[in-house]
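Lab meeting minutes (informal)
Scribe: AK
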Amino acid sequence: MTEEFIHYIWYYKKYNSLPLRTECNQEIEVINPGESNNHAGPDFFNAKIKIGGTLWAGNVEVHIRASDWFEHMHQTDKAYDNVILHVVEVSDATIKRSNGEPIPVLKLQCPVRLYREYLRLKSSVQWLACAGKLHNINPLEISLWLQRMLVERLEYKMYNIQRILDQTTQNWDETFYRLLFRSFGFGVNGDPFALLAQSIPLKVLLKYSDKLPLLEALLFGQAGFLMGDFKDAYLISLKKDYRFLQQKHGLHPIEVHLWRFLRLRPSNFPTIRIAQLAALLVELKGVFGRLINNARLKDIEHLLEVNVSEYWREHYVMQKKSDKKNKSLGSNSKNGIIINTIVPYLFAFGTITGNQTVVKRALDWLINLKAENNSVLDKWKEQNIKVNNAGDSQALIYLSNNYCKPKKCLRCSIGHKVLTIKNTE
């Protein structure tokens, strides 16, 4: 067996024979298997177990072999002195606490068919190990697990937001400003947009948030796009303004080679995204709270209906004219910014400040936004899993990336149900 599987059968009480007995033939009654620990220290905390009629409260350690205790050097770690039970597949050593007391050992057994099904899931070459079994799962149980996945995804994003908060001395406006910039990279150019945000102090940006030409000079200059020689009057003016702003504020541009154009549609070129971002910043006029404190999703969508300045309506890149065209954010782009930036920020703000109204608003917005479209979600639809809104799509994307791809079936509620189905056939 694998250690992961022993964890599973211990926590979910899937072991074979009852009553359980230690290697010293003392009867074991598991009142509480403990809380799984994903950090340093024993595998399960706060377990409650009766051993030989005596109630013990403490930790449980799990290994394939009892001798793994020494392989992992637990005998030198005082944190393991509070282990009340050592759960193993093979009992090949006597384990003692630092004071010489032996630690009771449970040699755990499980149904062979359960382990075989686990191995089948782990060895599956399909994108979804449990494909073909989902139709046997109660849709309500799938729905409940997806709700959990959505919250877990938002919590994961919240940790990243907390990291930026720490970098900005708990400045929520600065944090949102950095998140907003990254979102305009739409994945491919996310990193250079993040660097662009870090290269311009928020207080400098706010000085020019009501002057589009200066704001464009600031953004394109810091992005490294104004280093060449230009013939267009617009670009000459932009470069002149940037040189003044650069000297005034002591700015240093990022490397222009960081930006990616290859295999992107022209509408997604970083030059167009920067022009759109500049227009949005002017619309916001530096008041980032307009995107956060507004309770109506329609108002947020309206704020994102920005268009580029005159020059960029006739260009996708500098000095190469194209047919004149409005280049506003498309509906998918707007949804992406709301789903991946504004909603997580709202969730984090509400959670960290204890404002449950804001947390609820974030979740409500996801339910009211259209689901994303991508190949991952298409595969779920092929399994007859409904993707009704952005909450569903976000949950399924997170489930795919964090449970299905790494085959963490034993940590997935759906995986548990699939194992049960196999063993009741």
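Next up, CB showed the second protein from the same session:
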Amino acid sequence: MHTMTHESKEPPKPRRHAVTLHDIAKAAGVSVATASFVANGKRDVRLTDETRERVQRVIDELGYRPNAMAKNLVSGGSKFIGLVADAIATTPFAGQIIHGAQDEAWKHGYVLLVANTEGNEPAEREAITMMLEHQVRGILYSTWFHRAADVPEALRETDFVMVNCFSPSLDSRAVVPDEVQGGRTATDMLLAEGHRRVAFINTTAIAPARVGRLEGYQAALAAAGIDFDPALVLDAQPDQEGGFDAVESILRLGVNAVFCHNDRVAMGLYDGLRARGLAIPDDIAIVGFDNQEVISAHLRPPLSTVQLPHYELGAAGVRMLLGIDEAAPDELRRIACPPVARQSTSAPRPVQP
């Protein structure tokens, strides 16, 4: 019998990670953008000779090799646009902002590079650094729900537009849903059917949607000559359970129409009213918000609602970034939320003598 012997070998040495522009910038005490300019030989940028020499020394010492694709893009600028999102690909509106941005980018000869960071700050920094290394034309920075968001420092090293979020200091360009207009539109859908006593189930979550949709509700009532009654505004968790739990309060108010903060709340309200033998819209008309189609289009009757313009937010962000739509450096642009009429609203039944 032949026995095979194996010569002992030393364990392989761990591979050292590739040197990145982030490493160069940190070692040289400069920004990632400055490191990129020196590494890629960009001469049309104002840098002192001392800075160029310091960065170049670090590049030589660490053995950095510029990305081949990035080097090819130095002369004319890249045809990439970055999109950094916190959890956008896993939301019920999966991909709508990305889809809108991608379509608009393609229309103007650009390719969209997408990073979904799940809210992880180190991953976010790495994503932005990678995009800077690829010399993207600029970056869209997006969140999965409309809110104020701090601007990562690395983002300020390139052109950027915030999408579905905005800087608390209002010092950056941003595109967001028009929550006030959306709230007014939702309320108008009920008023247009002749309803005069309209309740609003708002959310307990602190967000622009809570304040804006309430303001829109009040504006619609005022325009119709109806006095605002704070007793008709309820707070609820922004989900199906919140809508279900609000049913008793809605019935005590004696209203014939309800504007719900979102479609999930409306779905819970449907469940609670049906459990009490009430019909929609014959007994109570309902309007939601979001147009989360997996809910709104498949309820019985289908839910009238107002659409969050996620696709248009992505497209508008690209247009603003490319300068197609001019904007001030600190502009907060609001995108209209259109109505989606279905069968959950109707005129009130005439009162029997």
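CB comment: Residues 21-73 form a domain with the 434 Repressor (Amino-terminal Domain) fold (CATH 1.10.260.40).
No objections, moving on.
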